[in-house]
Amino acid sequence: MILELETLFVGNYMTAYPISVLPEVSLSECINFMARRGIGNLIVSTEEGDPLGVLTERDILKQIVEKNTLPNINLNEIILTPFEKVSPDISIQSAAELIISKKARLLVFAEPNKMVGIITPSDLLRAFRKTYLAPILDDVISKKVYHVGYDNSIFDTCKLMYEKRIGSVIVDGKNSEFGMFTERDLVFKVLDNRVNLDETIHLYSSFPLITAPEILANEAASMMAQHHIKRLVLQDQGKISGIVTVRDIIDAYQSKSPQIRNY
């Protein structure tokens, strides 16, 4: 069923009443919790339930690189990712514009001090997929793609991702195969299992690499949903030409990129 964009609102697509943790909780405990729940964002709140910020996979990567290890610290010692307040009746389009322009997480408040949900890029993409829109991705694709060797250490890979401000790298495997290592792999596969950061990246990367030819936003979104991934590698004539993320696709939907009606 195809829906009109104007009929889509945050309240219908948000993750309702998300779990939050106190700032006195340790970073290690939060990593374990995020891995068990399969989530990439964790809200940090006071005992009264007032949000202080959001712990993200990027925040965890930063701690690893700056401390050269997983530090034994609590959340109140970390600079958390900021958030913006939105109401349940704000449109999906407006929420997408806000998440891109502010580069912040969006928490949903029914009243000034009553948080009722969180709306993530994945939630927004789920809504956009129900519309007739099919934006062109040319202006949002990351065409600078970074590679590491399969024998590169986890820590050196994290350092590269932190320095380049990227959430993933292509892993050049054996026998000309390719894989990918992401911030989520760091949290779920490495840190949750207390893997030594000097180990090689190969065992903790995702193989084989899921790729697609250059496609429209709605097609990329469908592939991501099918394979449960947040990054899709694009190929041109058999060669890697770029990477598109969930956030990139949201950017295409909310921007003035050329739109193709997909009836």
UniProtKB/TrEMBL annotation:
Tell me which residues make up the CBS domain: 14-70, 79-136, 204-259
The record ties this protein, via Pfam families, to: CBS (PF00571)
- InterPro entries in the record: CBS_dom, CBS_dom_sf, Diverse_CBS-Domain
UniProt KW keywords: CBS domain
Its domain of life reads: Archaea
Q: Which SMART domains match?
A: CBS
User: What name appears for this protein in its UniProt entry?
Assistant: CBS domain protein
Supply the source organism for this entry.
Candidatus Nitrosarchaeum limnium BG20
Task: Identify the taxonomic lineage of the organism of origin.
Answer: Archaea, Nitrososphaerota, Nitrososphaeria, Nitrosopumilales, Nitrosopumilaceae
